[in-house]
Fold these 4 entries.
Entry 1:
Amino acid sequence: MTILEKLLTILDNELHLKGEALNFTEDTKLRGSLLQLDSMAIVSVITALEEQLGFEFPEDQLDGAIFESVGSLVSCVTRLLSTDNAAGASV
C-alpha cells in the first residue's frame, strides 16, 4: 500500500467519510473544502498518521498549509518518514 493509499484510508476513517476519501487524488483540496476537517479532526488525523505510519510530527512543523490538499499532506508525511528513517539508520 502506498503512502497516498494509507493516508486516504486514514482520512476516510478519521473523518467518517464512508469511502469518499478513497477516491481523492493529490489535487483534492482539504482545508476549507471538507466540513469534517475541523481542528479536532486534524488532531485525530495527525494522531492516526503517527500511530499507523510510525513517525512523529514535530510540533514546530505543524502548519495549516500541510492540510491544504491531499498532495501537500502526502508530501509532508513522505518527508517526515524519510527523515525519521534516516535518523533511525544513523543510530
Note: Helices lie at 3-14, 39-53, 70-89.
Entry 2:
Amino acid sequence: MNTFGRIFRLTSFGESHGKAIGGIVDGCPAGISIDMAFVQSELDRRRPGQSEITTQRKESDRVEFLSGIFEGKTLGSPIAFVVWNKDQQSRDYDDLKDVFRPSHADYTYQQKYGIRDHRGGGRSSARETVARVVAGAIAKIVLKDVGVDIRAFVSQVADVVIGRDYRELDLSLTESNMIRCPDPESAERMIRKIGEAAALRDTVGGVITCVVKGVPPGWGEPVFNKLHADLGFAMLGINAVKGFDYGSGFGGTLMTGSQHNDIFVTGKGGVHTLTNHSGGIQGGISNGEEIYFRVAFKPIATLLREQETIDRDHNPVKILPGGRHDPCVLPRAVPVVEAMAALVLADHYLLQNLYI
C-alpha cells in the first residue's frame, strides 16, 4: 500500500531516480494556515548534502504545492505536492541492473513484482521519505494548534550512547550540531564514530528517541488501533528501521511489577505520574503524560567496497557499488521520525473528535 492513515491520509508516489517524489494529503481540516517556510525548513532538515556525514547528492528539495491550499489556508480538499529530482546520477547504478545488493530490497522487489527500478533502489529508496516529511509538516501545523509538540533526536550511534535520561537534556540543542544530538559531548563522539566508519568505507546504525508533549488523555483506540501500536507501525515502515519500543520498553523486562507500576499524583494541571514507565500510553490510549519512544536503525546496507552477492540467475558475483550514500542514516532520519509521529497523532486527534 502507498497510503498511510485513516482520516488524515498520505498517499505518496515517485522513485529515487524518477522525475519527482510527491504525495497527496487527504482529510486535512479546512481553514488551517500553512506556513510554507516551516514546511520547507522541515524538508531542509531531511535533504541530502547538508553535512560531511551525509550523502553528497545535491538536491534543493523545494516543495511545490499543486492543490488544496488557497491564500495560505487549507481548503479541506486533497493537498497535492511535488518535489522534483534534480541530481540523479543513474549511471552509478548501471552495474547493479542484473545483481541483487546484500540486505537491500532488490531481491524481494524482483520476486514480488517481476520488475524493479535498479537506479538507487527505485521506490524502496529512502528518498521516498520526502513525501512523508512534507505531509508530516502539515500534520505538525494541525497539531500545533492543539498544543502538541514533537521532538526527536539521535540518542545512540553504534556503541556511543547518551548516558542521561531525556528529561535531563536540553532538546533545544538538537539542531546545534550535524548529528542532531542534544548532548554536545556525546555528539562529538558520535560524529567521530561515523567518520571512522566512513574512512573504512563502512556504515553504522543507532537509535533515535522521540518525545511528544501536549497530547491530552484519551487519544487512541483500546483494541486494534492502540496509540502505541500505530506509532510502532509508522516507525517500522521507515527505511532501515529494525526496532521500536516505548516507555520502559525492553528495559521494563528487568523490573518487577512493583518497580514498574507508575505512581499517580495530583497536582497543578491535573493528574500526573512520577515515573512514566508507561511512556504516556496506557491500554492503548494516551494518559496525558509525555509520550516517548525509541526507534532502532540498522547500518546502511550499501557499502562502497567489494561485497559478495548473487545475480538474477543466482550465480555468485562480487560487486563494488557506486553512488552517493550516507555512512549513517540517523541525522537525516530525525525529521522522518517526527513526521511519521505527527501523521499518527494528527490521525488520532481527528478520530478522537469524532466521539466528541
Note: The radius of gyration is 21 Å.
Entry 3:
Amino acid sequence: MLLAKVRGTVVSTCKEPSLNGVKFLLVQLLSDSGDPLPDYEVAADVVGAGIGEWVLIARGSGARQHEGYRDRPVDAAVVAIIDTVSLDSGALYNKRDDFS
C-alpha cells in the first residue's frame, strides 16, 4: 500500500459500464517523510475520502478485493482514510492537526 493525499476528483460520463457509480479521486503520492512526490494517480474511492485527506492506496489485484470491485477494471483504490502516521522519530501526520 502507498501513502497519498487526495488532490481532487475525476469525473467521466463516458466509461466502461461496470464503472458506473464509482467515485474517482486524483491522488498525489507521498514520500516516507510525508512530502508530495511528483506522481499522481487516479484511484477508485471505496471509503468516501475527501480532498486534502491522507489515504492508503492499494494497487493491482489488491485494489479489486473490496466487495463490488472484483469484476471491475480498477488498478488503484483508496482503501483507508489515515488518522495518524508515526515514525520512530515521532509523529509524521495527525488528521486532527491538519488544516490543509
Note: The first strand starts at residue 2 and ends at 10.
Entry 4:
Amino acid sequence: MKIIHTADLHLDSAMKTHLDSEKASERKNELTLNFSRLCETAESLGVTGIIIAGDLFDTKSVSKKSAAAVLNQIIKFDGIDFYYLRGNHDRESFISFIKESGEIPANLHMFEDAWTSYVLNPESNGKKTVLYGAEFNGDNTNTLISLLNTDFENINIVTLHGQENEYSGKDKTEIVPISELRGKGIDYLALGHVHEYRLKTLDSRGTYCYPGCLEGRGFDECGDHGFVLLDIDEEKGDVIPQFIDFAYRKLHTADVDISECDNSSEIIDKARAVLDESRFSDRDMVKIRLTGDVDENAEVNEDFIADAFKDEYYFVKVKNESKVKIDYMKYANDESLKGWFIRLVQDSEEIDDEDKGRIVRMGLNALTGEEIMQ
C-alpha cells in the first residue's frame, strides 16, 4: 500500500513579498495547481491515501476560488482518500465552504481536537494500518499526547501539526513532545509545521518526519521541496518513507564574493560565473547575495546587477551583504565633507565595526547623490 504524506501547502498565500502583482498572482495560482499535480501524481503512483498534516491553506479566510479548486480535485480523485488535519494557519472557512456547497465528499476525512482514527486498509488480509490524528486547540496541548492509545499489533501512523521538541511546552504553543510519543507503538509520525524535509528516529520501532512545504515561497525556503511517499508492507509491518522532489519552481541563494570588484559590471561577470556553474533552471527564483570586503568607493548597483539576469530566471533579486573596508588613515587629515563624515563614524563608540562600514557606504551614496541601498 502506498500513502502520501504532505503538509504546509499554504494555498492562497499572497506571494507579494518579492513579486510584482502580476507574478504574485501567477505564483498564487501555481500553488493551487500544485495540489492538482499532487493528486495526479498520487493516482499515477497507485497511492490510496494522502495525509495532509496541516496548513493546507495560508489564511483564515480562504478564497472561494481556491477552496473550490481543492474541493473539485478531492471529488475528481474519488479513488484516493484524503486525510485533512488542520494546522495553525487553517481555520473553519474551507470546511464551511464544503458544507455550503453540499455534502462532504466520502473520501475526505478530517480530525478534531480529540483523537480520531481511520483504518487505511479495511479490505487487506495483512496487518491493519491505522491512522490516528488530533488537532491542537490551545487548551489541549499538555494533555493530548497522554490520551493516545494504539494497538501494538497494527501498523500505526500518527499525524500532528506542531513544532517538534523533546518535551512539552509550558504554554499553549503547539509543541509535539517527542519524548512522550516514544514507546506508544508508532511506526510513522507524520508531522506538519516545519517547512523543510526532516526524517528522524522516534524510537526502536518508528520514525518521525516533516515532509516540508510542497513548494518554496520565499528565500528562507530554498532548495528541494516535495512530499513523502510511504510504501507500507502490510505483511511485514514495515513503513518505508521516500522523499519525492516535487516543486514546480525552486528558490536558490547564490553567494558571490565581490572582494576584488570595483564596479557593477565586474560584479555581473563574477555573478555570471557562479550562476553558470550552479545551473539553476530558467523557471527558478534566484537571490544573488553579494559577500566579501569591498573598497568604500566601489560602485555596487543592486538593481543594475539584477537587471542583467532578469531574462534568465523567473525572478532575480540582489542583496548586498558585503562589508566596506575603509582605510581610515587616508581620511585622517581630509578636510572635505566626506573626510569629516568618515571620521565621525570611525570615532563613534556606539557603532560596531560592521555597522560602521554599512553607514559609511550609505553616507557616501548620499553625498554623491546615489540611491541609498540598505
Note: The two ends are 53 Å apart (CA to CA).
